[in-house]
Amino acid sequence: MAPHGWDLWGDVSAKYSKDAIGDVEVIQDFAKFPAGGSTWRGREWPTIVDEGKVTSLNKMTAAFDNFMQQHDKTGNEKADGYSRDVFIGLEGTEKEIVFDLLVKELPFSVEWLFFLDADKALPVVKKEEERLKGDGYGNGYLLQEELVRFTGDLSYQDRMIEDYPAYTDSLKPLVVDAIGRTPANEATIEFFKRVILTEVNSSAVARAARRLLAALAVPRSTASEENVYSRIVSDLRNDSLDVKLRALKLLQPYEANLA
Fold first, then answer.
1. C-alpha span between 196 and 71 (Å, rounded)
2. How many Å apart are CA 245 and CA 251, to the nearest integer?
3. Phi, psi of 19, rounded to the nearest 5 degrees
4. Closest listed residue to residue 97, CA positions, set 41, 17, 24, 23
5. Which residues lie closer than 8 Å to 116 by C-beta, 6 or more apart?
6. What counts of helices (H) and strands (E) characterise the chain?
């Protein structure tokens, strides 16, 4: 069977790249270089690297190549996200290309967008957060959490709490955790209590119980403290409203300390 076009030209390109030596000038339009197309990234560039005979290649850095390898992954490997080292050592045009690629992956790439260029990322993330606000499927809480972390603006914490009821059941536990990673204050404590008392999503309730105790700094360093902690968490997850209310009453001294 004759090879498909991509395979045929890929083999030709790989053979041609195998003979490359010394200084190599890559001819691609600005929009593609240095990311390149699938033949460049999948056949030509790996061959050049494996042969080790090319001493310079325009200005492509190893960091950019590592980024593109992670960017092109799929499935579970893609879900693992990026490693910090792929952003260290990027140069001029590479940074611009990487930034644009990360924007297309928002909201999941928000942490790395700020890491790459925080000042440039801020207006982009704010605009995307506004677009996703109230979308129960949109994962906007990721943007809001990062905005709280980067700017210290607790209005984004308020927006996380406001958006919570709209989220799907699969996302609600993740939103609870995200709110729990923002600064503990009266608003978050009241939010966790409300979830514990009114939410039917058992996973969200369980996470709210643990986040509430963490926000109140309930100790668990000794065996005795761990027993008390576990009992309170268990009671907060109980189906009985009365049991939950009694458990919340036990936490009042900790709330007083927080104030």
1. 39
2. 10
3. -90, -5
4. 41
5. 87, 90, 95, 98, 99, 102
6. 16, 2
pLDDT tens, position by position, 161-181: 999 999 999 999 999 999 999
Pick left, alpha or beta for residue 26 (phi over 0 → left; psi -120 to 50 → alpha; otherwise beta): beta
How many angstroms separate the CA atoms of 15 and 18, rounded? 5
Residue 207 CA to residue 151 CA, distance in Å, equals 26
Cβ of 96: how many Cβ atoms within 10 Å? 14
Q: Summarize the confidence of residues 10-23 as an average pLDDT.
A: 62
Q: Residue 27: pLDDT above 90?
A: no
Average pLDDT, the chain: 87
d(CA 81, CA 96): 19
Pair type for strands 54-57 and 22-24: parallel
Q: Please, are residues 202 and 237 in contact by the beta-carbon 8 Å criterion?
A: yes
What is the 3-state secondary structure of 206-232? Answer: HHHHHHHHHHCCCCCCCHHHHHHHHHH
CA distance 14 to 47: 6
